[in-house]
Amino acid sequence: METFYYEVVSINGDYANLKRTDIESDELKLVARALLPPEIQEGSRLKYEWLSYQMI
Length: 56
Known about the structure:
The chain has one domain (4-55): CATH 2.40.50. The chain has no helices and five strands. It has strands at 4-12, 15-20, 28-32, 45-49, 52-55. A five-stranded antiparallel sheet has the order 3-2-1-4-5, with no helix packed on it. Strand 4 (45-49) and strand 5 form a beta hairpin. The protein is globular and about 30 Å long. GO terms for molecular function: lyase activity. This is Chorismate--pyruvate lyase. It comes from Suilimivivens aceti. Keywords: Lyase.
């Protein structure tokens, strides 16, 4: 299973926009907040591994 690193760019209601930080990319990924740790804020860093997001 691969590991990906993200930064929370913005939060809009029940969704958050995430940007990959482990590769060069300008694309944003829209993710439901129910899948993310409840304590996230804009600027939070996340690790995606084994189908779950964790704060780092």
